Amino acid sequence: MGYNNFDNGLFDFAPIFITIVFIVVIGGILFTIVKGVGQWSTNNASPRLTVPAQVITKRTNTWGGSNDTSATTDYYITFQVESGDRMELKIAGSEYGMLAEGDFGLLTFQGTRYGGFERKV
């Protein structure tokens, strides 16, 4: 009669822990999907506007890239419209390189969706 680790209830917790982790992961995935669909729906319900604006700042967000995976970069531009309101919109890298801080022009957007920027000289 020795001490048996399998009878002390330690391993009874493992299925509960695995279930909790599974629920948290699935919950996180569902939350992300619902949030994305909600933003997409809000953008579609918003009017497509073209307004005079100025490029205020540019920034990037690079993530990933460890070991054998490639890095991903997201590009953002902050625009200021005539009313003084500012909005940061995610744009394509090809357009990011074509804009400079201080540029004036016509910004087209729909909700948080970038539609284009026509620079005025």
- The amount of beta strand, in percent, is 35-45%
The CATH architecture of the largest domain can be named as Beta Barrel
Mean pLDDT: 89
Give the domain tally: 2
Low-confidence stretches: none
Span between termini: 90 Å
Radius of gyration: 24 Å
CATH class of the largest domain: Mainly Beta
Query: Which class of secondary structure composition applies to the elements?
Result: alpha+beta
Strand order of the largest sheet: 3-2-1-4-5
State the major sheet: 5 strands, antiparallel
Tell me the series of helices and strands, N- to C-terminal.
HEEEHEE
The CATH topology of the largest domain is given as: OB fold (Dihydrolipoamide Acetyltransferase, E2P)
- Which shape, going by the Cα principal axes? elongated
Transmembrane segments: 13-34
Pfam families: DUF2500 (PF10694)
Keywords: Membrane, Transmembrane, Transmembrane helix
InterPro entries: DUF2500 (IPR019635)
